[in-house]
Amino acid sequence: MTATVPGMADKGWTARVAAAAGVAAGTGAAQLGLGYGLGVIVWPVTVTEDRSEWLGSLGWATWITASATVFGAVIASRLGEAQAARARQPWRSAFAISAGVGALVAVALIALPARAAVRLDVHAPIDVRVGQVFEARIAIDARAPVRDLVFAIAYEKSRLSLIRRSEGEFVRQPGVRAEYGIDEPSDGYVGVVFRAVDGSFATGAGNVVVLEFEALRPGASRIELRDVKSVAAGGEPNRNVIVTHATVTIH
Asked: In this predicted structure, which of 83-92, 126-135, 240-249 has the lowest mean pLDDT?
């Protein structure tokens, strides 16, 4: 009978270590759900100069992860208090480590929505010379399904002249039926529309549109994406969209 007591005690400690991880994971997930539901944690949909939303959300995410770790360790240390006299300090350390591992679930839940579902980048040379013809490519990395994509491209018409435009490989994916249009209502402004039809959608990476410019005069021109709207396969907006721009300097 005496030989079985250590084994039973070890099982008790093991259960408490597992409880630390489980409580921390559950607490972190619950707090994140509440934060997202109340709009306290919000990841911006575009790159902006004001980083207060990012900093505020990161602050709350840090607090949630830390508090979940502490709560998991405290709850585990209170379970089976009769065993606490045996190997108290080593097991308390184990509870803390296990709770920290459990809190990593919250980190994963934070990383998923924080990661861009759709990313649009402008790729263009940094430096060109007057009279040079160059390409500017609007590339997309769509980890989420894209049914509709609408955006505008703005540039400095006094320094750049658009001489050619063509569709990219992203909008010509096999098996994806779509309506695609490029319009230039005025110099310095190009509108792009992509709409998948018949229940189809596009994913993956590639160019949406390729623009060919001629450099007219010295100076700098920003090639900027504006009014970006992305709709997922189910008709809901893709709220996590990251957009980057490019600046071309003409010598």
From this structure: 83-92
Query: How many Cβ atoms from other residues are within 10 Å of residue 135's Cβ?
Result: 14
Q: Is the pTM of this model over 0.70?
A: no
Q: Catalogue the E-assigned strands of 155-232.
A: 160-167, 178-186, 189-196, 202-215, 219-231
State the fold for domain 118-250: Immunoglobulin-like (2.60.40)
Nearest residue to 74 (alpha-carbon basis) of 134, 19, 137, 3: 19
Domain ranges of the chain: 4-114, 118-250
User: pLDDT for 121-168, tens place per residue?
Assistant: 999 999 999 999 999 999 999 888 899 999 999 999 999 999 999 999
Q: Can you tell me the distance from the alpha carbon of 109 to that of 113, in angstroms, rounded to the nearest whole number? A: 7
Distance from C-alpha of 149 to C-alpha of 182, rounded to nearest angstrom: 12
